[in-house]
Amino acid sequence: MALKKFTFNVAKNDGYARLGKITTHRGPIDTPAFMPVGTQGTVKGTFIKDIEKTGSQIILSNTYHLMIRPGVKRVKKFGGLHKYINCRLPILTDSGGYQIMSLSKLNKIDKKKGAIFNSHIDGSKFILSPEESINIQKKLNSDIVMVLDECPKKNLNYKFIQKSVELSTHWAARSKKAFGINKHKALFGIVQGGLFKDLRLKSLNDLKKIGFDGYAIGGLAVGDTQDEMFNVLDYLKNHMPKDKPRYLMGVGTPSDILGAVKRGIDMFDCVLPTRSGRTGLAFTWNGRVHIRNAKYKNDKKPLDSSVKKFDLNKYSKDYLNHLFNTNEMLGSMILTLNNINFYQELMFEIRKNIKKGTFSKFYNKYSRKL
Fold first, then answer.
1. Whole-angstrom Cα distance, residue 295 to residue 314?
2. Among the options 94, 213, 266, 304, which is catalytic?
3. Residue 292 falls inside a structural domain
4. Would you say residue 368 lies in a domain?
5. What does the pLDDT read at residue 1?
6. Residue 122 designated active-site
7. Per the CB 3.0–4.6 Å rule, which of 6, 60, 149, 156 could disulfide with 168?
C-alpha cells in the first residue's frame, strides 16, 4: 500500500484562529494540536496507549537526548523510534537547537561544524551539525523533522540576535539540503529573531525562500513575558504562509495556547502538563489545583467530576494529597495523565469552537480562568 503524502489543509478560519488537518502516513493530526513531550522516547509516567486514549495524535521526542542515550544506533536496530517505544502515532523530533541554549555551558558554536557538545552525562564529546541532526532524525524515522537552529535566551542586544538569525538561516539551508526530498515526511524551518520585529520578518522571509513543509516559531518562552510573546506572534501572523502548519515551540500554559491560537498558531508542545503532574499541580476546567495544599485534606471531591477517562474522577483530592505528601509515584502518574487529558480536551474544545465560529466567546470565557 502506498504511503500517504504529508499534507496540510485549513478547513475553517475564525478570525486568525484556524481549524485544519495534517495528513501523515501514520495518521491524521487535527489542528490546533498539542503534542505531549516524550523527550527521551517516553512521556514520563505514562504508557503510550494511554497517551493515545487522551486523544493525542502526535508526540515529540528530542534529537540531542536520544543521541546521547540510548544512541541512534540502538534505536535504528529496532527499525526506528516508533518500534523502539511501541508508538503508532506520528513523532516530531526537535533538532537539538534548544539544547544549544539550555546546555550552553557544555557546548560551543562553530558556524561550519555546528554545536560542539560535551555530554551532560559523562562529558564525552559530540558534534551536532545541521547535517548530523537531520541524519539522526532520519535514522530515528521521525515523521516531522526540525532544522537545526540556534535558540538564544531573551536578549535585547540587536547585533547579537542578528548574528544568531544569520546562523540559524545558514543552518536551515544546510538542513534542507541534507533532508532532500521525501513526500511522506516533513521538514520544518524555525523562525528566530528574538523580540525584534524586523529580524523576525527577515528570518521568516529567508526561510520561505528556502521552502519548508511547515514553519515553527522558536526563541519564545525563554525569559520573555506572555505579552512579549504575543507581540511577536502579532508581528508574524499576516506574513506566515497560509497553506503551511505553524508551530509555536515549547509553549505553554492553557492561556498561552488560547492566545496563540487567536493569532493563527496550529501546533504546540510543552513539558508543562507532565512536569506539573510530577510536582503536584493539576490543570482542570475550574482552574489550577495545587494538590499538596493542606486544604485538600478531607476533600472527597475529584479533581474534575466531568472527566470519565481512566476513572480519573474516582480519586479524591484527599487521596491525591496523601499520595503526594508521602511521595508515592502513583500521585504523579495520576496527575500527569489528568493534565495531558485536560490539554487534549482543551484542544478539542478549541477546534469545536473554531468550527462553530464561537472561538472568541470561548477565548473570553477561559483565557484568564485557566
1. 19
2. 94
3. no
4. no
5. 63
6. no
7. 149
